[in-house]
Amino acid sequence: MLFISLAEVFPQLPGGGMWAIVFFVSFFFATFTSGLGITEVGVTTVSEETRLSRTGSVLAICGAIWLFGLPSAYSSSFLGQMDFMFGTFGLPLATLSIIALVAWKLGPERARVIELNRCAGIYVGQWWNPVVKYVIPVVVVFIIGYGVVSSIGTENQTLMILGVALMAALVVGSTVAMGVIENAARTPTSEGGE
Amino acid sequence: MALSAVAWATMLFAIVVLPGVATVVLVRSLRTEEQKLTLIREQGSIDSYSPRALEELREWIHANPNDPYASEARERYNECVQTLRESDEPYYDWSADQIETLETIEE
Known about the structure:
The complex is a heterodimer of chains A (194) and B (107).
Chain A: H1 5-9, H2 16-49, H3 54-74, H4 76-106, H5 108-116, H6 128-149, H7 157-185
Chain B: H1 5-43, H2 51-63, H3 70-86, H4 96-101
């Protein structure tokens, strides 16, 4: 829609060229800054959990993203399938994982007073606690559930089953991998110092 | 294709709300980060909690002395108090009287 339909609509508007520039520049910055934020999660994890330097972690993560993106660059059909699976189930599941860690394992009040308000530009009050603990999980579960239910009986049903299975496999695989890396990095005397 | 007044108003509103707000937030963030960097260069460190946030941290530590993260919280609290005592210019809105009354928390 963005690069085909809208690209045809803008020339028909008065001052269409200007609107197109404003829109696509805004779109570029929106996607670029989101991309930086999403990449940073992987870079920080690799940098902290492995012996790679920050530069090495950035190169490793960006290289992996580039490799995983190659099939989508060659096939628009594959891009559509991956977009459906990761966009409908992957992103909400990633959000749910972060919420499970911060709001349910660590605890929202503990995370807020120790970490969130540390060197913060804006003070975050107690209203944040029920939002991350209850509101966001309900919304995310609804999004995942809606994706599943609205796919049943349609041409996307197989993709939906594959997507849910792939995301479940990724969660289990990532948890096992992090457990192995953590056990390998842990020395007998470092337990109490963590 | 002529656009209606409502369409023009909507487009202008969208431009003000989306890139406009993003620009204001970006400029504000860059300014505050620059201010932090300047203070770190001049003083070596900056206070890490605002008065309200540090007060909440103190209350949480007293309410949860045996929490697994209590020692880390105490460390951060004391670090902030120490920095405030040693700094000429705090980053957050601390008054001299407020800093004077602060005490570190012992285990």
